[in-house]
Amino acid sequence: MPKLNILVLDDEPIVGKRLKPALAKSGYGVDVVETGADAIRLIDERIYDIVVTDIRMEGVDGIAVLRHALARSARTLVIMITGYATVEMAREALTLGAFDFLAKPFKLDDLRAVITRAAEKLAADRPS
Amino acid sequence: MARIGKWLRFERRPSISFRLLFARFRAILDNNTQVLQLFADLAEKQSGEYVFDRSYIQTSIHRVFDLVGKTVHDLNSLTDQKYMALYAIVDRLRDEVQGDVAGHPVVSKASFCVPFEQIDESLVNLVGGKSAHLGELRSRLHVPIPAGFTITTWAFLRVLEANHLAGPIEDALMRFDRGEEDGLVRLVDRLRHSHIPRDLARAIRHALAQLPAGSDGLFLAVRSSALGEDQDLSFAGQYETVLQAKPEEILDAYRQVLASLYSPHAVAGRRASGLPLDGLMAVACMRMVRASVSGVLYTVDPNRPSSGELLVGATRGLASRAVQGEQGMAHYTVSRQAPHDVLTYRPTASEDIVVARAAGGVETIAVTDSPEFGRELSALEIRNLCETALRIERYFKQPQDIEWARDDDGSMYVIQARRLAVSAPAGIPQDLSDMLRGYPVLMRGRGHVACRGVASGPVVHVTEETDLAAFPNGGVLVSRRASPRFVRAMAKCAALVTDIGAPTGHMATLAREFRVPTLVDCATASIILTDGQVVTVDADENVVYVGRVDPLITYQLVTESGLEDTPEYRLLRRLLRRITPLNLIDPQADNFRADRCRTIHDIVRFSHEKAVEELIDLQASGRVSGIETARRLVSDLPIGLSIIDVGGGLATAVGGSLSRSTVTPDAIRSVPMLALWTGLTTPGVWSTRPVRLDLSTFLSSAMSRAASETAGRNLAVVSESYVNLSLNLGYHYNMIDAFVSDNREENYIYFRFVGGASDAERRVRRASMVREIMERLGFATRQSLDLMVARLGKLPRKATEERLRIIGRLIGFTRQLDALMDDEDTITRYADAFFEGRFNPE
After folding, report:
1. A74/B contact by beta carbon, under 8 A
2. How far apart are the CA of B47 and the nearest CA of chain A, in angstroms?
3. Site from B53, B60, B101, B521 to mutate, A interface, most A CB atoms within 10 angstroms
4. Do B319 and B329 contact (CB within 8 A), yes or no?
5. Potential cystine with B175: which of B180, B407, B458, B527 (Cβ 3.0-4.6 Å)?
6. What is the C-alpha to C-alpha distance for residues B88 and B236, in angstroms, rounded to an integer?
7. pLDDT per position as a tens digit, A32-83
8. How far A89 CA sits from the closest chain B CA (Å)?
9. Per-residue pLDDT tens digits for B248-266
């Protein structure tokens, strides 16, 4: 199976710092960015299997990134990271087609579990 | 508070005023519990297993202050504003903490000088990054560093104030923003000639006098320790250092180092690193090692990180010029594997060395190195140096660049340690996960990560009784149960793995302090991992491999992001140290006063104690009219209990068993109180055995006996179906809140147990035993260190009463048991004894 590519977007550097080595060690290709604008640039350059994005950010927010990623490739699965006060936005994201969401703070294992489910869905959807 | 409403509906309505006061009382207890749970949640986030961010810290801290603010308000309404001092303490703590969270460190009024041996990471805002780092090396890792002290940022502010420099600094920085450097140049000059206020000069002289002078007198290395300096490698060498300064020259050296804070290139460096331009400078003054040999050590070869080699550079005399690359050094390559054999040696071609002058200062002299000098370091010295260096690397989880020096009496010192920048990760596998599939796995996803990291070493099985002084350097400690006693091996062990234990437990907390990769609750690790077997513990992924997985170890070292040293982790640690320590322990002690509260933990503990006291004294105060009477319960039990009846909880007729101020047990009508009382007075549950005293518990046990015999002040608020009992016995607190009626839907028991007078290990053990007992009784429990909360609801009346009787017995049983809980096995053993009715277990 080809290596899955994941884009991680969070405006707090510590999130990417924690996720990048952990996901890379689990065998995923990982790019990390800290602004929505950078995320959109990378999404335009290549198709990601999975996008993990914070929902609330200055400038281009997670909802905009979600829309952009899905418009670019309907197969991309987008996982939203939410904070305390963003449950409403998470609901909106799900109706817009987000795959799932996780509330910060979360355990790495929780994210791994969601990504594993996403990977299974990608494999099942893949035309044989 | 919904439950209060419940019993109020069912019972005779008590007076409004009491109801309100009691609601405040309960709110204080509730908030207290919530604060302690937030402490535990925050502490757990340090394991590395969680992804959190600054806003999580902000939100949690906000919640802590919200709760403690309410507590102080409730306590003051309850006590007619007796403890107003607490408002100011909360405000001050909030200012400090929120300033820190928002990135504006608040320098509190503090000492001008702090000796190295009193420095740890929590003082970073006061002593700067470099000093805090040195303090941590010494206190956590027992790395030998030369004696010294740090002149604090508070002293720096004093210099600015005394010389009226705040305005000129602002002005110079504004001009610098416009591209003009002349303001800074003038500022540097003014600082170099600044006046050192007399109080500060006196503090520095005093600190100097504490330093040991060698036979040739005392000389000092005076170095910058600015805030933020350690976070960015590009800062190395930005600020001035003065070597071999005589004590009488220290003020000049101090001025010179201070002034370098505002050199144009230093300010430009701060701007490039995103640090505040104005800066805060502490200055470290360290005894000069009379170096016969000195040098540097890299824990990996930066160009060949997977070679498994350490690099050691050495020169006779001082390494100051060699470190800056202006002079050659002899080079050793050494194996990273113990016993650290020297693989290659290349002598230096340099013909001059730097030496300290007896008259002060340093000079360069010519030597002709010849074979009769021999090598600079012996094999044993190299081995010891490498062991120390790898211990530092294990702790910081990143390759290290270490400056060291050997004194002329032969002792080796570390002068400085910082992260080593490792260039292109050549030889690092691109796809580690594929490669790792080839390594046999012993355990995967079996327990919980208590502290992340990767390490390899031979398994060393230990028990409570193992002598940990002999624990081998670099061993993987494996044990059936987690124990805080293992702290004695933590500076030496590579990783910790236990069958039983929790990420919020005491050992886990300590492991995080020492940054030892730790897995707990792995069920059968002590069977799977055999003694002496070499394993690799990956506590980032929760996997244990057979043997040494070199690619993983190298990968980890080179790609390590230094999570523990990110601003968020540092912030979290600083905040926890500021708000969670408990200083006010003994309610009978003189310092148990509002103005002595130093942390949030102090405030909630103090408020709890005073709230109980206040309810007992309400009637006597005459402040509230129509209040239910607090009556002292007259019995043989030494628990100093008063009872307030809010409706049907006591016999109504004043007479034989009930007076205006006292009551005897036969007047109790409250169903849950009666059940508890029956349990409490079960023959034999109040241990009469003399408490064994050993050195570690001598003081605390003696104090706890004194406290229980002077009968603390305890309170039960009762109605026919309800009890709220607060019982403080020898520094541990039992709180029971229960409702019992014929309607099982209404019934519940809430039991909280916290504290103790013995050491932390034993307190946590006792709380664990209480938890085990409550779980066997079907309670849902939660434990954070020595706080245990158990809940149970919706049981029929008889079953609820029976459990209250058991809790009553348990309260008597546990009273002084912690002093006896010497090892982890006592947890289950004493729980068994309790259920078997053996209330005086051996």
Report:
1. no
2. 10
3. B53
4. yes
5. B180
6. 41
7. 999 999 999 999 999 999 999 999 888 889 999 999 999 999 999 999 998 7
8. 17
9. 999 999 999 999 999 998 8
- Closest-CA residue of chain B to A30: B431
Residue B226 CA to its chain's centroid (Å): 24
* Bridge partner list, A53: A9, A80
Closest among B776, B839, B797 to B675, alpha carbons compared: B797
**What CA–CA distance (Å, rounded) separates B405 from B297?**
11
Buried-exposed string B637-662: b where 16+ CB fall within 10 A, e elsewhere: eebbbbbbbbbbbbbeeeeebbeeee
**A108, B50: Cβ pair inside 8 Å?**
yes
**Does residue A27 sit at the B interface (CB-CB below 8 Å)?**
yes
Handedness of CA B554, B558, B564, B565 (dihedral sign): positive
DSSP letter, residue A81: E
Instruction: Sort out which chain B residues have CB atoms less than 8 A from A22's CB and list them.
Output: 540-541
Q: What ipTM was estimated for this complex?
A: 0.88
User: What are the C-alpha distances in Å from A82 to residues A37, B60, B426, B449, B545?
Assistant: 19, 16, 37, 23, 35
ω into B247 cis (within 30 of 0): no
- The pLDDT tens digits of the residues spanning B626-664 come to 556 788 898 888 788 989 888 888 887 666 677 778 889
| Cβ count near A46 (within 10 Å) | 11
| Two tokens, residue B59 | 């939100």
Give me the amino acid identity at B384: N
Q: A79 is in which domain, residue-wise?
A: 5-125
For residue A91, give the CATH number of its domain.
3.40.50.2300
Q: Say whether residue A124 is in contact with chain B using an 8 A CB cutoff.
A: no
- CB-nearest to B50 from A17, A26, A106 is A106
Amino acid at B753: F
Write B813-817 long-range contacts (CB < 8 A, 24+): B813/B685, B813/B687, B813/B839, B814/B732, B814/B753, B814/B766, B814/B769, B814/B770, B815/B686, B815/B687, B815/B708, B815/B729, B815/B730, B816/B687, B816/B691, B816/B701, B816/B704, B816/B705, B816/B708, B816/B730, B817/B687, B817/B766, B817/B769
Q: Which residues are registered as beta bridge partners of B352?
A: B366
Q: Which site among B51, B60, B538 would you substitute to test the A interface, given the most A Cβ atoms closer than 10 Å to its Cβ?
A: B51
Mention every residue, 6+ apart, whose C-beta is less than 8 A from residue B394: B455, B494, B515, B516
As for how many domains chain A has, the answer is: 1
CB contact under 8 A, B561 and A106: no
Q: Report long-range pairs for B525-530 (Cβ below 8 Å, ≥24 apart).
A: B525/B443, B525/B446, B525/B447, B525/B478, B525/B497, B525/B498, B525/B499, B526/B461, B526/B478, B526/B479, B526/B480, B526/B498, B526/B499, B528/B442, B528/B443, B529/B442, B529/B443, B529/B459, B529/B476, B529/B478, B529/B497, B530/B459
Q: Which of residues 22-61 of B touch A (CB under 8 A)?
A: 45, 48-56, 59
